[in-house]
Design a protein that fits this description.
The complex is a heterodimer of chains A (158) and B (189).
Chain A lengths: L1 H13 L16 H12 L17 H15 L4 H12 L14 H32 L3 H18 L1
Helix pairs in contact in A: 2-3, 2-4, 3-4
Chain B lengths: L1 H23 L21 E2 L10 E2 L10 E6 L4 H16 L4 E6 L3 H11 L5 E5 L3 H5 L7 E5 L5 E6 L5 H20 L4
Parallel strand pairs in B: 3-4, 4-5
Antiparallel strand pairs in B: 1-2, 3-6, 6-7
Classes of the chains: A mainly alpha (158), B alpha/beta (189).
Chain lengths: 158, 189
């Protein structure tokens, strides 16, 4: 029951993200091409609203780009050719996944570097902790010494 | 080795601090879209005249071989800031003898005609971009946008938004002066 409810909540909360701005008159009759158009659109960022792909944006330019994508696919362009065409006009900015090149090294590598630093820190702290327990553990000589001291103490008191 | 590790948090703090300083700098506009057109030849486009307006249309060929840099302004009658910018552009044409070309972006021809009759027409040529396709060629994200194109057809400068207010006008005037100086320094094309 709880599992079902959880699933429902998850499903419903995911719903708003599935809303598209693509209007019926833009869609292509050829469903294969339309699916490809959606794939291409997912990689293109709306240049007005910026953190949406063009499929979920209602802006005029996003609509024009959607129509342009469909037009070029219909003319026989590959997905990559369409992306190249738009990239040539709007630059890296229009790609939701920016290419890996010197200007974007920081963007791509920062998470990896941060994870490495974090892992390094955790390992350093843990190894130090285990080294400390190793030092505090008593060996047999120590145990014997303690036993002797305790015996001596007992003798002194009596 | 131990000292190096001890310095690590300071190093990380410094890097993060520098990053935040850069990111929170009020002069930095995170919404600014860098133009890929700068220093590139003007895009290929060919627009007919706006129906009922007695200036010719605009195509790429009109931007090549001019003796001085020209200004290409993307505008529309439905664009509110364009109305304010219109006065600035008119002044530039009249006072600084700027050669101004227009791209009428996704506008109804009759609306554009009425707008130009109301406000006057400072444009030497106006291309009618009904579909917005030429706008995509220029990589615009909205109207108004204004470009400075060198005599040889190279795009030198792009201004996003209306050139209104002393700061914007000075910035644009400076870019135009630099474009003119660069053009004069060359062979005159």
């Amino acid at each position: 029951m709880i599992r079902k409810l959880l699933f429902m909540t998850l499903f419903l909360s995911a719903m708003p993200f599935a809303v598209y701005a693509v209007e019926p008159d833009e869609m292509l009759a050829d469903s294969v091409l339309e699916v490809r158009a959606r794939e291409v659109s997912k990689k293109l960022r709306c240049v007005v609203c910026q953190n949406q792909d063009i499929d979920s944006s209602n802006s005029g330019v996003a609509r024009d780009l959607r129509i342009l994508v469909r037009e070029r696919l219909t003319k026989g362009d590959t997905n990559a050719e369409v992306l190249t065409f738009i990239h040539a006009r709007y630059g890296d900015f229009v790609l939701l996944k920016p290419p890996f090149k010197p200007e974007t090294y920081a963007l791509w590598l920062a998470p990896i570097i941060l994870i490495l630093i974090g892992t390094g820190g955790v390992i350093a702290v843990l190894s130090k902790a285990s080294r400390l327990t190793a030092i505090t553990a008593l060996n047999t000589d120590d145990e014997r010494a303690v036993a002797d001291m305790l015996a001596q103490d007992k003798k002194d008191r009596s | 080795m131990k000292r190096a590790i001890a310095a690590l948090p300071i190093l990380i703090a410094l890097i993060l601090g520098a990053f935040f300083l850069w990111g929170l700098n009020p002069d930095r506009d995170p919404n600014a879209i860098p133009s890929v057109l700068i220093a590139q030849p003007a895009p290929d486009f060919d627009l007919p005249t706006v129906d009922g307006v007695d200036v010719p249309g605009l195509s790429r060929s009109n931007l090549i071989g001019n003796p001085t840099p020209v200004v290409v302004n993307v505008f529309a009658s439905w664009c509110v800031p364009c109305r304010a910018e219109h006065a600035v552009l008119t002044r530039m044409v009249e006072r600084d003898s700027v050669r101004l070309f227009g791209i009428n972006y996704k506008d109804k021809p009759e609306a554009a005609r009425g707008w130009l009759e109301d406000l006057g027409n400072p444009y030497e040529r106006i291309g009618s971009d009904l579909t917005g396709r030429a706008g995509i060629e220029w990589g615009i994200s909205g109207v108004p946008e204004t470009f400075i194109v060198a005599g040889d057809g190279t795009v030198l400068y792009r201004y996003v938004g209306p050139i209104v207010g002393s700061e914007a006008e000075e910035e644009f005037a400076l870019a135009l002066a630099q474009a003119r100086a660069a053009n004069g320094a060359g062979t005159g094309i």
